[in-house]
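Sanity check

After download, print the first record. It should look like this:
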Amino acid sequence: MTPVLAIRELAKRFGRTPALASASLAVGEREIVALLGPTGAGKTTLLRCVAGLEAPDGGTIELGGRDASQIAPAERDIALVFQNFSLYPSMTVRENLAFPLRAPARRRPSGEVAERVAWAAKLLRIEALLERPARRLSGGEMQRVAIGRAIVRRPRLYLMDEALTNLDAKLREELRFELPALARALGTPVLWATHDALEALAVADRIVLLDRGVVLQSGTPAEVYARPASPAAARLLGWPPVNVLPARRKDGHWTAADGTRIARAAPGGPDAATLGFRPEHLTLEGGPAPAEVEVVELTGPAQVALLRWAGIRAYALVPRSARIAPGLRVTPQVAPEHVIVWPAP
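Expected structure tokens:
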């Protein structure tokens, strides 16, 4: 099946600064793909190239199998939602929602405009705001209207550019569940750019990890989280952050530089490697070498312990009921099946 969006080896520079370097990804029918990366990774540039707001310097973009360079931006049938709301402050909510349907490129009859505005307002629970000027809305209300402006068009593809970033934590959490459910109900695919790993895990059918303009890995959330392709990919996904350390094979075990045994090593393979393991896989008892708890942070249902162990500062995610405090001596261990082995640099 032809994907709705196919990007191959996309490149874009601003002067001497590369924003994208041979980035490739695809979005299928009814699929939500999270484009996850830190600030400066190239997420916004990629979305702007797809929307036709930037011209790439290399590579191709196909929309429904057609070369997007042959399609004018207004004819691409894409809705882009920015993080800064992008409303007309002097217009009412109703007028803002109707505006995309009255643009020359897609002008609709008045009856259809009214019907679509009412439909979008009901979906987003903003019916009571329809006659209010946009300048009198809260940040959360503005973003719901901005999303309404996108869905009222019923495009073939949504581009979400950090669409939840400027919202307060409670509303961000609500929309993190509502928007994917809405997109799936509409049957419209989404390319969702975010720097928030928890957001990417929550919304996506598939995650694409982007850093410094390069795609590091693509896969389902479970695949990318459990088996990241590199330490750089692992660091982009998950909180507390993944533990990473260099190790060598000794007496059948992976051993840290200070001599601490980390886990049993599978037979064969290299003598040196970079190891990774998630904080939830590091337990505080049963290991061969002592460590000291430096910091304890309560996150609600669990605690994060920062340990001085094996020559690194390691994170452990432990139950809320565990009795730990700074200065406590523990004996950490990680099960071999949870250790990720990458080639040594």
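If your output differs, re-run the checksum step. Summary of this record's structure: The two ends are 39 Å apart (CA to CA).
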